[in-house]
Amino acid sequence: MAGERLTHVDEQGRVRMVDVSEKAVTTREATAAGRIVMAPETLALALSGKGKKGDVRAVAEIAGVMAAKRTSDLIPLCHALMLTSVKVAVEASPDGSGLQVTAMARVKGQTGVEMEALTAVTVALLTLYDMLKAVDRGMTIEAVGLVAKSGGASGDWTRA
């Protein structure tokens, strides 16, 4: 891995957008996840859907979908993709410490959707923070990362 050349740098060392025109069109999918840790009272409020700002989970899910669709506007050199599916779920963390966000992005194209899934999770988490910060400024966003990807020349990958 350390000897691999970064693909966003050309032979002369200049930054460029990767040319994917020769890549095969395949179905590519990526799933990412992250969590926001909060006080038990904040979690109960978020799960109730009855806070002063309404159902914060529903708003965060919509924000995540919208963000995935705008990833190329946010991440330099990221290709604009015609996403075929984006799903974002906000649920209680298995350990009860807060909320977990999971996002899946899918495309039939020439490049992967890892950045779209990661962007969806990150924006959904930031939306939760924004909507709940008046109740709990001590919340922390943690463990944002790729969970799995499939399709493309590099094949499938799943976090161990």
UniProtKB/TrEMBL annotation:
What are the residue boundaries of the Molybdopterin cofactor biosynthesis C (MoaC) domain, all occurrences included?
Answer: 17-152
Name the record gives this protein: Cyclic pyranopterin monophosphate synthase
| Keyword annotations of the record | Lyase, Molybdenum cofactor biosynthesis
Where does this protein act, in terms of pathway? Cofactor biosynthesis; molybdopterin biosynthesis
* Gene Ontology annotations of biological process type: Mo-molybdopterin cofactor biosynthetic process
Organism of origin: Brevundimonas variabilis
Supply the EC number(s).
4.6.1.17
| Family matches, as Pfam families | MoaC (PF01967)
Per the record's keyword annotation, is Repressor included, yes or no? no
Similarity-based family: Belongs to the MoaC family.
Asked whether the keyword Lyase is assigned, the reply is: yes
Q: Relate the protein's function as given in its record.
A: Catalyzes the conversion of (8S)-3',8-cyclo-7,8-dihydroguanosine 5'-triphosphate to cyclic pyranopterin monophosphate (cPMP).
* Positions annotated to bind substrate: 77-79, 115-116
